Amino acid sequence: MIDPDLEALARSLPAGVLVTDPDILAGYRHDRAADPDARAPRALVRATSTADVQATLRWASAHRVPVVPRGAGTSLSGGSGGLADGIVLSTEKMRAIVVDPATRTAVAQPGLLNAEVKAAAAEHELWYPPDPSSFEICSIGGNVATNAGGLCCVKYGVTTDYVLGLEVVLADGTAVRLGGPRLEDVAGLSLTKLFVGSEGTLGVVTEVTLRLLPPQPPAATLVATFASVQAAADAVVTITGVLRPAMLEFMDRTTIGAVEDALRMGLDRDAAAMLIARSDAAGPAAAAEIETMVAACRDAGATEVFDTADPDEGEAFAAARRMAIPAVERLGPLLLEDVGVPLPALPDLVAGIAAIAAAQDVTIAVIAHAGDGNTHPLIVHDPADPDLTARAHVAFGAVMDLAIDLGGTITGEHGVGRLKKPWLPAQVGPDVMALTRRVEDALDPAGILNPVVL
User: Fold this and answer.
1) How confident is the chain (454 residues) per 10-residue block, as mean pLDDT?
2) Which of 21, 103, 240, 347 has the smallest count of CB within 10 Å of its CB?
3) Range of 418's domain?
4) What is the pTM of this model?
5) Are 103 and 175 part of one and the same domain?
6) Strand (E) positions, 48-159?
């Protein structure tokens, strides 16, 4: 029997959009972060249109019921987990896309997966660059909400660089269109960018206009192994000081071993670190860039350097990097971070993470979009072992404190979510927190939108 308070909402939505079945709601308690503080929501709305989102937010604002927007549920920061007294507003069924080759744009609904946007663009010989490692399972709406990056962002930029326009439903149910299929447009305030990375705290995105590029040129790939993490980090700083590779990724020994266990591709388990780099420069410039990166790795003390122009060989190493998180998860449940620092501080960050792991006697695997200083420390723990879990949480906080001390950030692309919320004031300071509240209060005076995050 439906909750009497939800009857008005149910009447305003098409049949089947509002879900109150406890078994289904239980599946929307957690996102991929598996935050223990998340709860099964009071109800679920599986929106099929902007009108469904509007009706839900009008009802929620009138009744002061919190709403957690959710895409594919792949959040690694706990930003889309449920609240016991709230509604999860899912956009997973909003999956339309139209590609316009003339303007090189795509208009996509938020439930479409990143990989599906790429595939739709490729049908028109176009390319959507942002490529989170989870591109096959994460949604465009979630990418916009967290301003996701990816393996090629060191050269091509992150999600916000490809968002030209949005349709957003505000907390009171008003739908607004911001931006559009224009490469240059400075009319009015830059409101489109305000919503990118806002994690559903300012409005719910129901449509995205994305900039597309011509196809990425064929890439040459370099793989280098090192006897120390410091040597690999030094190579990264040298490389990024002279060029912008199409990819520059880092894996430490723990990650290398986990990936080798999963893929059996002959990775060097004895290496302390591995770099995977790419150049997609045109013509002979690619070979020149690879040569520069080979020299940087050798000068930093690489134990082995391999490069190839074969696309299949190169893609195999990129796939190994994408496999890193699932492979490390085989060691146990993870607390995942994505702290970032200015590139010159990358060696200090990596060394500091190793010291934290030793001090807390926990396993921390480190992978990184090294070319832009965004690292993903993966802290292994065991919910059945309270002592280990407690030490893992201490390490989690210590890594974020370290990033802040090095002039960095507590999140480069995963968002703040529940897990990092306590550290946000330490990074941005009281004046920015107060300004953030003023913006939120203006757009969501009832405070219903994703209180999980802010």
Assistant:
1) 78 96 94 85 97 98 96 90 94 98 97 98 97 92 95 94 97 97 86 96 98 94 95 94 95 95 94 96 93 97 95 92 93 91 90 95 95 93 92 96 97 92 96 96 96 82
2) 21
3) 331-444
4) 0.93
5) yes
6) 67-70, 87-90, 97-100, 105-108
